[in-house]
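To whoever picks this up:

The parser on our side crashed when reading a file containing two proteins. I've narrowed it down to the boundary between the first structure block and the second sequence. Both blocks are reproduced below exactly, byte for byte. First block:
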Amino acid sequence: MSTSSSNNISELEKYLQNGMKLSVSFQFGPNDNYDFTTTLVGHKTQQYLILDLPIKALELLVMRKLSNVQTVVRGICNKDYGHIVAFKTSTYQSIRRPFNLLFLRPPKHFATKTIREHERYAISLPASINTINSEVSGVMADLSVSGCGIFVAGENELQTGSKVDIRCELITSLPENLGCHIVKISREPKGHLIGIKFDETINMSDEMRKEVLEHAFSAGSI
């Protein structure tokens, strides 16, 4: 990913859109933070940003003061799924009525990351590897247009060069009947990472790009 930064907050406007998914981290102190995902409700870029404050977060933070808390925000740009925007700011305050909302100060500067077409996305989703004789369950750890990595706990009988099928129900736009073969098996603590190459580079549609980006975003890898 290529990264750029800007001190011109008016430029932030083009990356913000009501309803966009955000990852928020409250920085209460050294080794004391709380992370959650939410959405942007509204904003006046030069004055404030309004975020939805999930009930779960409110319950866990009931004994915390949510004013003047250092806050890190990252978001996927709905207008262009080729960008991630990030900035540091602080909270004004939270309100409970008529809705649970969080008000943030406008940041002094922000950064954006352009995601390359052939980016390898780090994710964490249940998946399976199917051979002629067996099905092995694991966790898809990364995905690109040319292949993926699936972590399998413990021992397995998979072999490099084997033709396999992969399934990952949470990526609904993954092409069906995708030809694959195992190119690498790496031993890791508690299991093995199975490197899988697609027989043909997949065409990552806008729908699939959006879906994978949001999974990677939820995994905290972008």
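<<boundary where parser fails>>
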Amino acid sequence: MVAAAAEVVPRMFRITICPGWASVRPSRRTIPFRIYAVTVERISDGFLSWRPLIAGDLPMLAEWLREPQVARWWNHETTLEAVERDFGASTRGEEPGEDLLVLLDGRPIGLLQRSAICDYPQDLTNFSAVIEVPAGAVELDYLIADPALRGRGLGSRMIAAAVEDTWNSYSDAPAVLVAVVAANVASWRALEKAGLKRVAEGPMSPDNPIDDALHYIYRVDRPGAASSAFRR
């Protein structure tokens, strides 16, 4: 676990995942800086954990954003100045959402973004144009940086662990929603393997302008919570 200069509140969860089982946002308010870690039961690919992104991670993140497959879907500026501009507030605890560095056996391998949709009005507007957004719903975005680690189930493990932790970290969240551009088949298949269900589709502004506007919306509800999305 990496130490931080400000308030540190370690939290560790052990989560068992059964086999088979994504935008940069402006700063809004300051939140306490905490350390989070989630350890997933060891399978062949090792232990997954995460912690908040820190300033020292930004050069590495810039490199990740240059990787061709990441660049294809995230379409983010890759200069260090641009990464510091768009992620720096998060490293200082000035974002309502979370930018989390994902680790595999302690080695950085990806990024997970998580936030309450209502904390980002543009995201709320975009979702609401396609689906009714329940109050307190959380959204996720994610990437795996190393091409050699893709296609091995790590994406679905990461998503499933993030969802499981969300019920603890966001006590008022009734659901997790994820919008994914329809062309990104690997991403929405990972969501399905993690247990999310496709509940809507419609036009949303894509991160990469070469893509069609069609997006799929995936959803999973807090265990035991009633959901109009799945009610027959």
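After patching the parser it read the second block fine. The chain is about 25% helix and 25% strand. The domain at 12-221 is CATH 3.40.630.30 (Aminopeptidase).
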